[in-house]
Write a structure and sequence with these properties.
The structure holds two protein chains of two kinds. Chain A is of the alpha/beta class. Chain A is built from 18 helices and eleven strands. A two-stranded antiparallel ribbon of chain B has the order 1-2. In chain B, 76% of the residues lie in helices and 1% in strands. Classes of the chains: A alpha/beta, B mainly alpha. Chains A and B meet through α3, α10 and α17 of A and α8 and α15 of B.
Chain lengths: 440, 298
């Protein structure tokens, strides 16, 4: 009897020990998912994060995407610390020209995956964010440029033709002055004519660049010497300064406004015109972001000329994309990372980015797609992008970009706050830039 | 006999070290190694895209010739003096108020703690919208009250004052709590006796509160000093050291050098300079207070 009980006990123990293994047997045979780690903003509101999540489903769980979320400025810090520490936790990272120029030694070149025939299907400047030192390191996801937006209703109220936005600086000044007013008669200006983001690291350098290129100038010459303090640079800075202080049609508070805040004041109907990324268009159509007087009343076009004799317009053409890191190559996941990026930048995802957030697609074919060019909610933006492409200016990037950016912005801020003569500020910035470029 | 006695004495002396050894090992692992690593980095020319190079004390020498560093020191001094002075004075006022008996005192004491509980980033974002030039509540309220005739760009025209205010709002509950705890420790009968002797409230504060709060005040100043020297989040969100580097406090300059300019060696040297500064200031202050206490016989 005792032996029988002992036998039952032993059997029970065996069952208890073996059962989990037996039950787990199929899962043991199953391969664990391949994990790809992507560093980017989001995932909320990020169409590429949504696509990455869809990709997991498409691959039936064979690939799992870990989204390493970081705000824009944090991505550079994260990359710097990860690469400096030899951390291999990032396979794919969001990048733009500045970061690629800075971090390309840590990216994996994938030129072989980008035949010339495929590159020709993109806008000319689309590959900027993933190209450096003669190699391609990833995939562009959208192109970035500044547009000119105007509120047609405010134009009408001021007796201006809502179909004719300013095309020259003189027209901009005249329109801007007319649109700056005290609407409620309390002695305070509550509607400003024009806004551009000029906050520190908004980045203000971009604002200056846009005027500089329209003045025919450049940041550096072909030998890499600073030339932005020449007469063209002065003219560009003077144009901004005059709009604020001479014509008094930009709120001096713009020096404190970044891009999101500039969009907010425009969408709240407190500013009649602004220069902004493509996101300005999407937000001006969004009832949760724009007031009812703004929705449906916004026009978009290319930036006005500073001097039509020099150039009709110029913007800063750039783009953002994804780069594959060397860590991914070390882990042997480049092929899978490439497939994920192909999916994330597919036509469908480009369209969603365009429609929901105003991210302009890098694919050339989409700009001729009748479905898009006839869509009244997209056509003006598509047309403005195509027209801006006639005046291409590559956005300034350099390996020491953050240092150069800070050096220039610091002086521009001093000048635009009236603390330094404009030429003196430009000269000081040029000296600082020359010192940085010379190296330690 | 003698040998046994010596062994026992050694054992007695070694026991505390033996008991402390796990904690010490942990401390060395989590604090010691990174510190040693950072000290090593400060002796290198370490840029992300260049091979590392041992340069001895060059980074430290550079500290003294770098005009940006000297400018940053001045800005840090301005921020620290402004914020610590204001924090201690306001904390005293607030603590004295909370020390009084009034209905709902407990609720008020709890409510006062709320800013302290906020994450520094949340505090920064909140003040960023408060200071917004076109639609910020601060401009709006001051305009409605007729104090301002036109909106002010706080972060452009008054960046340092704006920074100090945003920082103060967040940290003020901390010194208030310390000072309040000190006030609670002063016997109330001292105040009653002084009142009987005809001492007014100012005299009572000067003759009783301040002398008995000397240690607490010292502690508060030191803690606030160290905290203010380490300010980061509010600078990062409100001004990023601008405009034109006017709020480039040392801690933010270190971050910018190391993680934005990727000059890790010089950034590490700057960090050690800041640490040395904190230690020296603390030492000087404690010494001064000790001498003052000796002189007054307290």
């Amino acid at each position: 009897m005792r032996n029988r009980r002992r036998g039952q006990g032993v059997l029970l123990i065996i069952i208890v020990l073996v059962l989990p293994f037996a039950a787990g047997a199929p899962s043991l045979a199953q391969q664990p998912p391949l994990v790809l780690r992507v560093l980017d903003e989001g995932p909320i509101g990020n169409p590429w994060a949504k696509a990455a999540s869809e990709y997991e489903r498409v691959t039936n769980g064979r690939v799992r995407v870990e989204w390493i979320s970081s705000p824009w400025p944090g991505i550079q810090t994260r990359l710097a610390t990860a690469f400096a520490a030899g951390d291999t936790s990032i396979d794919i990272t969001k990048t733009w020209g500045g970061w690629t120029t800075e971090f390309w030694p840590f990216f994996h070149a994938i030129d072989d995956k980008w035949p010339a025939s495929q590159r020709n299907t993109l806008l000319t400047y689309a590959l900027h964010p993933v190209a450096a030192a003669g190699h391609i390191y990833g995939v562009p996801r959208h192109v970035t440029l500044y547009y000119f937006y105007w509120n047609k209703k405010m134009f009408q109220e001021a007796g201006l033709d809502p179909a004719r936005p300013p095309q020259t600086y003189e027209q901009l000044v005249a329109t801007c002055t007319k649109l700056t007013k005290d609407r409620d008669g309390d002695g305070r200006i509550d509607q400003w004519g024009y806004a551009e983001s000029m906050d520190v690291a908004s980045p203000m350098l971009n604002t200056f660049e846009r005027w500089l290129y329209r003045a025919g100038g450049d940041i550096l010459d072909s030998r890499g010497n600073p030339i932005f303090n020449d007469r063209r640079g002065l003219r560009a800075l003077q144009a901004i300064y005059d709009l604020i202080y001479t014509h008094k049609c930009i709120d001096p508070g713009a020096l404190q406004l970044g891009n999101p805040a500039t969009r907010q004041v425009f969408n709240a109907g407190r500013v009649a015109m602004m220069s902004m990324w493509g996101s300005g268009w999407a937000e001006a159509q969004d009832p949760t972001r724009a007031s009812k007087d703004v929705i449906g009343n916004v026009g978009v076009t290319i930036l006005p000329a500073l001097d039509p004799a020099i150039v009709r317009s110029a913007t800063i053409h750039g783009s953002e994309g994804y780069a594959i890191t060397k860590s991914a190559a070390q882990r042997g996941v480049v092929e899978e990372a490439w497939r994920l990026l192909q999916y994330m930048t597919s036509r469908a995802v480009q369209l969603e980015g365009l429609k929901t957030r105003g991210y302009m697609p890098p694919s050339l074919a989409l700009y001729a797609d009748p479905e898009l060019t006839r869509d009244p909610s997209l056509a003006p933006l598509m047309a403005a992008t195509a027209e801006a492409g006639r005046y291409p200016v590559k956005r300034f990037v350099w390996s020491e970009y953050p240092r150069l950016e800070d050096a220039i912005e610091s002086e521009l801020q001093a000048a635009l706050r009236g603390r330094k003569p404009l030429q003196a500020a430009l000269d000081a910035a040029a000296t600082a830039v020359a010192r940085i470029l010379k190296g330690p | 006999m003698e040998r046994a006695h010596t062994r026992r004495r050694l054992q007695t002396r070694a026991t505390p070290f033996f008991l402390l050894s796990p904690a010490l090992a942990l401390l060395i692992a989590v604090a010691g190694f990174p510190l040693i690593g950072a000290a090593r980095i400060s002796l290198l020319r370490l840029r992300l895209n260049a091979p590392e190079q041992f340069i001895g004390l060059e980074n430290y020498r550079r500290l003294f010739s770098d005009p940006k560093m000297l400018q940053s020191l001045g800005i840090t001094a301005m921020f620290v003096i402004g914020s610590v002075t204001a924090a201690v004075v306001l904390a005293y006022l607030l603590a004295l108020l909370l020390y009084q008996d009034f209905p709902g005192r407990r609720v008020v004491r709890t409510v006062v703690l709320i800013p302290w509980a906020l994450a520094p980033v949340v505090n920064g974002i909140m003040w960023k919208s408060m200071y917004a030039p076109n639609f910020g509540p601060l401009n709006d309220v001051l305009n409605r009250l007729g104090i301002l005739s036109q909106s002010v760009s706080w972060l452009v025209d008054y960046p340092m004052a704006s920074l100090i205010l945003a920082y103060l709002w967040k940290v003020l509950p901390f010194p208030t709590l310390i000072i309040l705890a000190g006030l609670e420790g002063i016997p109330r009968d001292l105040y009653e006796a002084a009142e009987v002797d005809g001492a007014g409230s100012l005299t009572r504060f000067r003759r009783i509160t301040l002398p008995l709060q000397r240690t607490i005040t010292l502690l508060t100043v030191i803690l606030m000093l160290v905290d203010a020297l380490h300010v980061f989040a509010v600078v990062d969100i409100l001004t990023r050291g601008g405009p034109a580097d006017r709020t480039m406090v040392l801690n933010y300059a270190i971050f910018r050098t190391a993680f934005r300019y990727l000059d890790f060696g010089y950034g590490a040297a700057m960090a050690f300079a800041l640490t040395a500064l904190v230690l020296v200031l603390t030492f000087v202050y404690i010494r001064a207070q000790s001498e003052a206490a000796l002189a007054t016989g307290r």
